[in-house]
Each structure stands twice: as structure tokens, then as C-alpha cells.
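User: I've been trying to design a sequence by hand for this structure and keep getting stuck. Would you show me what you'd pick, starting by listing the structure so we're on the same page?

Assistant: Good idea, let's start from the same input. This is the structure you sent:
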């Protein structure tokens, strides 16, 4: 009898995962709030949550939804003031949930989600120890929930993210703290979890959570795994998301820019949904500026200036000013170049890698105009045009060691993406020879890309050698990122 009752309860969970437990009730108000959050209509979400509070004040899905609103508020604003103002909400929400129905699969899940969301936000503002503690907590809660409710698919979303991020985490405070707790991830395990969820959720009663899964999966593919499939998979899985979602526009444009589908990014951003219903998202203006400058459209300055005038956050200020300096340089405006270079050095913060690198580049000698054009065109995927810029030149045509190494590096990247492996490998080797003792990233990244070429060719010995060469280089730009990618390459080859 008891066994039959347990089986019946488990069956109910699979059929009615959203509303089985009265105090964890994903009812119509909550689902509408959740949908609004993932369209970045945070005002609408707040209104639905307010209605739910009046109708069912004890529903413990409410604090989870409120945390989502705070999470996306900080994510879109990048504001330290917003972060400092909102982070105090965490403990009261966890208190409300912890007093509720322990027999619900949402009991541990909701607590894990709140911890994980704050961990992700803290990482953006350098609070690595607290972030590590929250990841540890979230991981333990989700592991316990898997044991109690193995059929509750949403466990895989958080565990997929934890596995993916920790499985490819660069060396640093966050990684070392988590290592002391014995928490390690596996990137491929995380990717597999996300792929399974993205394929199966639309066919299940968990379908409302699809957009969130795709949001995290796209991030992991592009920024953690640096996957060659990031573009195709993001476009595939976002296709069924409504065009009224500003988050969809962000995901698609971001992955297009990261993966050299530049004209597509410009088209997506031009058609993005707009209006008072949507959360302000200045970063999209920054992205639009990057996309236009990648095709050497010097009107890109309009977007960077708009970003700087509306942005209240701490990120991309240095990088936006560096891009404005490049525009001035390409226009032949020496005074404008000097003004924006000074802003790139002195204004803004260095919480993220882009801004750290922008400050480094602004502090370096003025770039070669030919190399800058080739770099921008390459980033946009305009490979033939990029190659034409460098056509007929050689490393010795450039005076500084930096420019000699960069010339070979740019040539290698262009040949690589054109599928001309032999020419790419030759240019990468020249970059390593010229730049291995410099502080710039060219030589280390050339070794990393060389490893990927040999890996693709199934030449394991040379691939390992190249990845180890990348790891052995120290005290250069992007060191942590390049080293973590090279280690991931060695891990793939070991399997």
C-alpha cells in the first residue's frame, strides 16, 4: 500500500510539476511573472507578483520570482549601486522558503536557485569568496534534491551550470576557494545536461522553463566552452522563443558577434523589441556599436556614445572609450584619439576582462591602422577583406616587436578561419617565435589556436605540445582564460 502511494505521488509529480504543492504553486500569476522576466518585461513581472502576494501571500514561489527580478535588474544595469541595494533581500527570501513544505521538490530547488543567482552576480563584482560559498550551498541543495526527487528535471539546470562553469573555471580566487570545498565540475557533463533539457523540455510539462535553460546554455556554449557550435545551437534553440522577448534579441546578437556573424547581429539589433515595457539594457547599444565598427562603419560612435550616456553600470566603460578612440584614429583625428585613450585609462572599472584588456591596450603604443582594420574585419567575419588589408605585407614592414607579433597573429587567425590550416600553422609558429617573451596575448593564443588545429587534424602529439606551450607562457594578457582553454583541450585529448 505504502509503495503504491509513493508511486502515485511520484506519478503526480511528473504530470503536474508546477502546481502539486499549495505553498509552492506555479499558478497563472507566477507563470505570467516568470514569462515576463524572461522577456525582460520586469515591470509586468512585478505587477503579477504583487497580484499573487495579495491572492496567495504564503506561496513560496513568490520569493523565488522576486529574486529573478533582482537578478535581471542587476544583470541588465551592471550597476554596483543596484547590487548593493538588492543583495540584502537574499536572506529573508531564503527564510520564507525554509519555513515551508519540505515535501515539495521546489523546497530545496528554490533555495538553490537563489544562492546560485547571487553567486553569478557576485562574481561580476569581485565578491569571489561569497560566490564560492553560495555555489557550494546550491550544489549541496541540488544534489540532495536529486536523491529525493530524481524525476524533477529542473535539478539538471542548476547542476548543468555548476558543472559547466566549474569544469572550465580559470585559476583564481573563486576556483581555489571551491577546490578547498572539494567542488569540481565537468564541462562536458554540464553541456550534456543542458542539451538534454533543451531537447526535452518543450515536449514535457516543464516547458515554461525552456527559455531559462536556453539562456544559460547559450552563455555556457559561448563564454565557457568557447564552442564552435555556439552559433548554430543558440540560433536553433532560440528559434521557438517569441520575438517579443528582448532576451532573445540579446542572446542572438551576442552569439552572432562572438562568432563572426556580424551582419546578422546588426539586423537582429535593428529589429529588437523596444518600449517602456522592457527593462533598460544599455549593453545592447554597446553591442550594436561593436557590430558596426567590425565592418569599419565609423558611425558606430553613435551607439558607444549612447551606451556611455545611459549606462549606470560599472562594465564596458573603458572598452567603449577604447572603441571610440579607434574610431577617432581611423578618422585621422589625433586629438580625439588622445582624449578617448585617456578616458579608457582613467574612467570606469576593471571588474571584467574586457575592461582590463581595454586599459592595457590604451596604455600600450598607438596601434597600427592596418592591423586595427584587419582585426576589426576579422572579428566581424569579413575574412577576405581582412586578408586584403594585410596582402603584400610582411612582419619586417612593422617597426615594433608588438606589431610584428600581431601581424603574424592576425594572419594566422584569418587563415585559420578560411580553412587554410598549413598557412595558419606557419603564421601561428611565427607569432610564437616573435611574441613568446612579450606581455601581449598574441603568442599564447596562437599556441592555443595551433593546438585546436592539430586537434581537428587528429594529431594528438602536436596538439598536446601546442596546448602545453600555451600553458607554459606566463605574465601575458588573458592569461587565465587562455590557460583554462588550453587545459580544457588537454582534457579533451585525454578522453
Amino acid at each position: 500500500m505504502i509503495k503504491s502511494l509513493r508511486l502515485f505521488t511520484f506519478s503526480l509529480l511528473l504530470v503536474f510539476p508546477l502546481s502539486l504543492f499549495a505553498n509552492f504553486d506555479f499558478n497563472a500569476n507566477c507563470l505570467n511573472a516568470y514569462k515576463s522576466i524572461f522577456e525582460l518585461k520586469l515591470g509586468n513581472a512585478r505587477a503579477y507578483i504583487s497580484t499573487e502576494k495579495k491572492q496567495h501571500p504564503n506561496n513560496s514561489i513568490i520569493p523565488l520570482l522576486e529574486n529573478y527580478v533582482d537578478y535581471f535588474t542587476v544583470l541588465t544595469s551592471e550597476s554596483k549601486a543596484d547590487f548593493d541595494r538588492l543583495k540584502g533581500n537574499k536572506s529573508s527570501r531564503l527564510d520564507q522558503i525554509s519555513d515551508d513544505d519540505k515535501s515539495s521538490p521546489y523546497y530545496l530547488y528554490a533555495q538553490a536557485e537563489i544562492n546560485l543567482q547571487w553567486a553569478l552576480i557576485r562574481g561580476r563584482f569581485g565578491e569571489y569568496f561569497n560566490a564560492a560559498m553560495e555555489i557550494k550551498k546550491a550544489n549541496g541543495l541540488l544534489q540532495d534534491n536529486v536523491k529525493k526527487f530524481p524525476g524533477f528535471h529542473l535539478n539538471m539546470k542548476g547542476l548543468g551550470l555548476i558543472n559547466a562553469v566549474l569544469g572550465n573555471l580559470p585559476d583564481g580566487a573563486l576556483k581555489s576557494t571551491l577546490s578547498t570545498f572539494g567542488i569540481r565540475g565537468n564541462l562536458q557533463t554540464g553541456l550534456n545536461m543542458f542539451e538534454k533539457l533543451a531537447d526535452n523540455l518543450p515536449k514535457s510539462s516543464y516547458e515554461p522553463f525552456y527559455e531559462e535553460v536556453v539562456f544559460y546554455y547559450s552563455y555556457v556554449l559561448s563564454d565557457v566552452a568557447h564552442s564552435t557550435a555556439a552559433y548554430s545551437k543558440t540560433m536553433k534553440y532560440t528559434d521557438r522563443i517569441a520575438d517579443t522577448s528582448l532576451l532573445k534579441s540579446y542572446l542572438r546578437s551576442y552569439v552572432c558577434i562572438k562568432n563572426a556573424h556580424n551582419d546578422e547581429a546588426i539586423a537582429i539589433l535593428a529589429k529588437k523589441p523596444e518600449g517602456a515595457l522592457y527593462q533598460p539594457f544599455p549593453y545592447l547599444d554597446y553591442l550594436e556599436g561593436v557590430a558596426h565598427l567590425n565592418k569599419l562603419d565609423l558611425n558606430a560612435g553613435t551607439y558607444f556614445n549612447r551606451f556611455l550616456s545611459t549606462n549606470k553600470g560599472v562594465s564596458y566603460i573603458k572598452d567603449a572609450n577604447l572603441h571610440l578612440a579607434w574610431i577617432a584614429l581611423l578618422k585621422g583625428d589625433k586629438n580625439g584619439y588622445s582624449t578617448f585613450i585617456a578616458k579608457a585609462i582613467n574612467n570606469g572599472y576593471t571588474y571584467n576582462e574586457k575592461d582590463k584588456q581595454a586599459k592595457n591596450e590604451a596604455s600600450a603604443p598607438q596601434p597600427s591602422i592596418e592591423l586595427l582594420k584587419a582585426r576589426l574585419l576579422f572579428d566581424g567575419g569579413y575574412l577576405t577583406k581582412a586578408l586584403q588589408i594585410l596582402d603584400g605585407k610582411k612582419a619586417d614592414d612593422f617597426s615594433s616587436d608588438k606589431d610584428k607579433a600581431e601581424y603574424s597573429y592576425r594572419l594566422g587567425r584569418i587563415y585559420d578561419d578560411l580553412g587554410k590550416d598549413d598557412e595558419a600553422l606557419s603564421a601561428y609558429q611565427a607569432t610564437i617565435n616573435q611574441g613568446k617573451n612579450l606581455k601581449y596575448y598574441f603568442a599564447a593564443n596562437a599556441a592555443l589556436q595551433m593546438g585546436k588545429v592539430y586537434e581537428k587534424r587528429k594529431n594528438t602529439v602536436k596538439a598536446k605540445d601546442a596546448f602545453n606551450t600555451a600553458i607554459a607562457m606566463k605574465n601575458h594578457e588573458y592569461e587565465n582564460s587562455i590557460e583554462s582553454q588550453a587545459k580544457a583541450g588537454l582534457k579533451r585529448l585525454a578522453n
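That's my pick for every position. To get oriented when you compare it with your attempt: The chain is about 70% helix and 0% strand. The longest helix spans residues 128-148.
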